[in-house]
Amino acid sequence: MMRKFLPAAFAAAFLAAGALSPLRAEEPATFEISIKDHKFNPETIEVPANKEIKLVVKNLDETAEEFESYELNREKIIAGGGQGIFYLDALKPGTYPFFGDFNQATAKGKLIAK
Fold first, then answer.
1. Is 102 part of any domain?
2. Where in the sequence is the domain holding 84, given as residue range(s)?
3. I need a labelling partner for 77 at 20 to 30 A (CA). Which of 17, 35, 92, 98 fits?
4. In total, how many domains does the chain have?
5. 3-state class of 7 per DSSP?
6. Is 45 helix (H, G, I), strand (E, B) or coil?
C-alpha cells in the first residue's frame, strides 16, 4: 500500500510547489521581420524602449542569411526557409542598425526603440 501512496504524494507535492511559485514574468512583445530577395521587410521597425522584446526574423529566401547587429550584440545564421528568434533586453531609446552579413549591399535595416 505504501508503494501506491508515494507516487501520489510526490505528485501532489510537485503540483503544490508549482502553485506556490511566483508568477512568471509577462511574455515580451513580439515583432517580426522577414528576409526576401536578400532584403529585410520592413527595413525599419519601431519597438517600445525600456521593455524586453522578442524579435522573429523569417528567411523567405532559399539561401541562408546571417542576421547581424553590432549594436544589439546579436548574430545568427538563418537557413533558407527558416527563422531566428532573438530575445532582447530592454533597449534604451535609439537606433540599432542590423544587416545580412551574406548580402551586405542589399540586406540592411534598423530597429528604432522609442
1. yes
2. 29-113
3. 92
4. 1
5. helix
6. strand
What is the phi/psi pair of residue 20, to 5°? -90, -10
In a domain, 17, yes or no: no
Beta strands in 1-114 (DSSP E): 29-36, 39-41, 44-47, 53-59, 65-69, 74-78, 83-88, 94-100, 108-113
Q: What is the CATH number of the domain that holds 74?
A: 2.60.40.420
Distance of CA 42 to the CA centre of its chain: 17
Residue 18 located in a structural domain: no
pLDDT digits (tens, 9 = 90+) for 51-94: 999 999 999 999 999 999 999 999 999 999 999 999 999 999 99
With residue 9 as reference, give the H or E element that holds it: helix 2-20
pLDDT of residue 24: 54
Q: What is the pLDDT of residue 70?
A: 97
- Residue 54, Cβ density class (10 Å: 0-12 exposed, 13-18 middle, ≥19 buried): middle
